[in-house]
Amino acid sequence: MTTESMSTGLAADVEELTEILAARRSRLWQITQPADLAAWVFADPEPAPLDPSPAAFDGNWAHGLDEPQRAAWALAGWLARMTVPEAAPTAGRHWLLSRVDEGDGPLLRLTVGVLETLGVYESGEEVWLRVAGAPIGLAMDAGAVDLEEWGRRGIDVGEDRTKTLAEEKLLLTCPDIDTALWLLRQPPVIAAARMLNAWVAAGPFPFESRYRPEVVGRAWQAAETLLAGPAPAQSGGERGYDREYAESAVSPDLPAQRSFDADAYRAGVTEHDRLCRVLIDHLGAEGVRVGAGLHEVPVDLAWRDADGRQFIAEVKSVVGLNEVEQLRLGLGQVLEYRHRLATRGLVATPVLVVSRYTDEAWFDICGENHVVLLQGEDVSDWTARLRSAA
Questions:
Q1: Residue scoring higher pLDDT (251 or 364)
Q2: Cβ atoms of residues 215 and 193 within 8 Å
Q3: How far apart are CA 160 and CA 154, in angstroms?
Q4: Are the C-beta atoms of 28 and 202 separated by less than 8 Å?
Q5: What Rg value do the Cα atoms of the chain yield, rounded?
Q6: Which residues contact 183 (CB under 8 A, 6 or more apart)?
Q7: Does pTM surpass 0.85?
Q8: Model confidence over 338-351: pLDDT tens digits?
């Protein structure tokens, strides 16, 4: 398809949606116009800015929430800011976020107009989305959506039993928050979410009495954790780190004293850098660039894979008889870093890289804590382990 034909098709889509929206009488037209809203649906996705916020939230939004809950609040706020038209001035007038208790636990729910368009369990174990079907159908016809890939990721395209726009929308269910974020970063899906929300936002909104500004304010702030860095590119190779990795410098003038073995220290630093370089080169062969540090958390290495999943790694050199000490220290560090990133709403897969481990119990210990254990003596299985963890 040529650029000219794509532009022509986009213009036709905007014109058609403008006519649909213009046919609906809405208070929304006091602050925007049908043509502007239709153009927004198909524009490059940008979130509503943090300021002005539709509702104030005093204190730390993440206070009292565990890691999955923080990720759930971040997703709910991100989707509201990304897919609700004129989100800040229309909160409580055309949409709301609510927190309800259901059989499977607390659920964050986005309601736009008369329709619930998002549900994310605070456990992080399921996310469902209602979206317009047309953008996804057109993308499928053009080969831009791979339903087999969706199936491999556990994404279900099911029958939606709600009556509003029954034949015009789809119900998408994801097994976890990471998968939902991957799905929503597909341009046809974000356009489909915006289209449906624009459509129903221009209709009646009977739920104003249920609006709780503190819920919206909290989620609005939580979304910043997903907006702190550049969104992952579909082809991979995105940063996912603060700075380029620089090798460790060892001063030639280290003190030689009884409590400090300068030669052992130099050997450890050299081995640490070697392991870092091995991992950087290994991932670089797959088109992924690796750096260090992430949101001011001092991780040794950080990267995003081709699907945008965030990884962090702690690297420990094992020289001499320090194997147990290094494994204990490294595992503690990478668990700490995962927790600190989670408080910022960033879900990361932790990796512990060591020169070697002779006690196979460490593989199980790391596995029980959802940490990927890699050893420098066997690089051949690194790719499989990282993909399995992701």
A1: 364
A2: no
A3: 18
A4: yes
A5: 24
A6: 129, 150, 153, 155, 172, 174, 189
A7: no
A8: 998 888 788 899 99
Report the distance separating Cα 137 and Cα 135, nearest Å: 5
Give the C-alpha separation, 75 to 126, whole Å.
Answer: 12
Q: Distance between CA 311 and CA 390 in Å, rounded?
A: 9
Q: What tens digit of pLDDT does each residue of 211-257 get?
A: 999 999 999 999 998 876 443 333 333 578 777 776 655 555 555 54
| Cα distance between residue 349 and residue 313, in whole Å | 8
Report d(CA 348, CA 54) in Å as an integer.
29
Q: Which two tokens stand for residue 351?
A: 């990796």
Is there a contact between 219 and 55 (Cβ–Cβ < 8 Å)?
no
Q: What is the set of domains in the chain, with CATH numbers?
A: 3-227 (no CATH), 243-250+259-389 (3.40.1350.10)
- The strand order across the sheet containing 310-316 reads 243-244, 291-292, 301-304, 310-316, 348-354, 372-375
Residue type, 3: T
CA 48 to chain centre: 17
Q: What is the rounded CA–CA span in Å between residue 261 and residue 325?
A: 16
3-state secondary structure of 209: helix
**Burial class of residue 64 in the structure, from the number of CB atoms within 10 Å of its CB (0-12 exposed, 13-18 middle, 19+ buried):** exposed
Sign of CA dihedral 279, 283, 284, 290: negative
Beta strands across the sheet bearing 127-132: 95-102, 105-112, 115-121, 127-132, 169-174, 156-158
Is residue 50 within 8 Å of residue 57, measured between CB atoms?
no
Least Cα distance to 200 among 118, 144, 299 occurs for 118
19, 192, 68, 176 alpha-carbon torsion, rounded to 10°? 150
